[in-house]
Known about the structure:
Elements lengths: L25 E5 L2 E5 L7 E2 L4 H10 L3 H6 L13 H13 L17 H4 L8 H10 L2 H16 L8 E10 L20 E9 L4 E9 L5 H14 L8 E3 L7 H9 L4 E4 L4 H13 L3 E2 L4 E8 L8 E9 L7 E6 L2 E6 L9 E8 L5 H9 L3 H12 L10 H25 L7 H8 L3 E7 L2 E7 L5 H21 L5 H12 L20
Parallel strand pairs: 4-7, 7-8
Antiparallel strand pairs: 1-2, 3-15, 4-5, 5-6, 8-14, 9-10, 10-11, 11-14, 12-13, 15-16
Amino acid sequence: MVLSPEPGHPTGEQLSTPFNPLAEAIEVETYAGKVHVEWDPDAAVTPLGQLPFFIQFLKMGGRFDPWVETCPLTYHSNNAPETVDVLGSLFLSILSGHRRYAHITTLMGDRVNSSLLGMSKVVSDDSARRALKKINEANGISWLQDHLHSCYEPLLRTPWILDVDVTVKPLYGHQEGAKLGYNPHKPGRPSHTYHTYMMANLRLVLDVEVQAGNQSHSNDSLPGLVALLNRLPADSKPECVRGDIGWGTDNAMTQMEAIDQPYLFKLKKSKNVKNLIYKQHCLGEWIRINKEWEAKEDTLQLQGWEKSRRVVVVRRRLPDDHVIGIDYQKDGQQQLAFIDGPEDIKIYEYSVLVTDLESDLVSIFHHYRDRADCENNFDELKNQWGWGGYTTQDLKSSQLMSRMIALIYDWWNLFARLAIPEKHHEAITSRPLLLSSVGRLTEHSRQKRLVITSAHGSIEKIKGAYTRLVHFFNGLKAIAPQLTSRQCWQRILDKVMEAFRVHPGTDHQLGPPLPE
């Protein structure tokens, strides 16, 4: 009997077809009837459909490529991600308004903008955190400071003012540098302090330093401020450095005078400052600033000052129906007492500024009043751009991320002003208007086509803005071979600044008190 030959490859158990839940539709009941819902994870779509316009802005200005090429991040493993993938992932996360590294995961399905940035993939949040730890702190800070400087450097040839201020970032874990310090909103909570140097009115961050929570004094900001001023060429120095009452100290003014840097600070109402207010109040002869404020100037040398300095006393009369109340504690309970004065009583609010500027009183007054815009910058950066997040246990990562956020914040603000020059738009307004939309990428005959669907109510305004923007970039592209990268960036900034001019004779009707 001859047996049939056995097959060379015996068949095993037949494998069942793997169940793919994403391939089947799900029936969902809605008020419009039954809807069949399907998932398509391989579709080339993005929630940031208008990002290509911003990418063109960065490419024409020579911002993104040099930022990636000069990054001091090196890998030695063949399986490590590319530098452009790491920085591009952080770029997309910051631009999307994220506050945590874990939010990068929401971008991993975006197969459109990652490719348009020259990336091969969006890295994981762990890869992003590890990459920041691999960067040498000194080299990383110098790298980001250089790109911040190249961003705003062409704007320094016109007169400008440098604002200095500190903001507090509360912390909720065991972070390096988490110390108890000045924290008015969450007293007793450890924090970091962000010592920030900004270009007034343009909402551009020049530099930022992250320090421990108990280092919030102007003496802690002075080394960084002096280093920043020393890095600027002689023809790019600010017209003055502007700060609040924390900067009205002899040490701060002496260091500014040592490098011939004009300043404008506010003084605390110490005993001798109050005596000056009393003297000037009794002398009269005030100079009218506007319908509310009036001013006088004098010289003052407080205890501990090396010399006397020019001071400007400003005041405004409060309304006659102003209610004066005194808050005090009695037997552990908070009490309030109202003061009733004579019917013809005049109540004034006083502030004292110290400066070495030779400007007139009206100019000095308005210069300091404009400093209130700093608080708007901090609100936007902390609540809309991630300065209040991206927390890690090491301080070095916070140092790098704070500057990286500031750099992308500067890029976006300049882009938004270029697209919509009428006024500044905070991220909570400009992102839905200029960034968020559904984009679907298709490719046929080597031609890529991105179809954008925006649900914004101002779609016609958006289309008009981007039409003007692309027309400007096409004209710049035609002459780009004749220009250097810096000259291209200069022309873009010139276009940004066209609508940002202060018209002479503008009426400054300022109601709120002087900023602290």
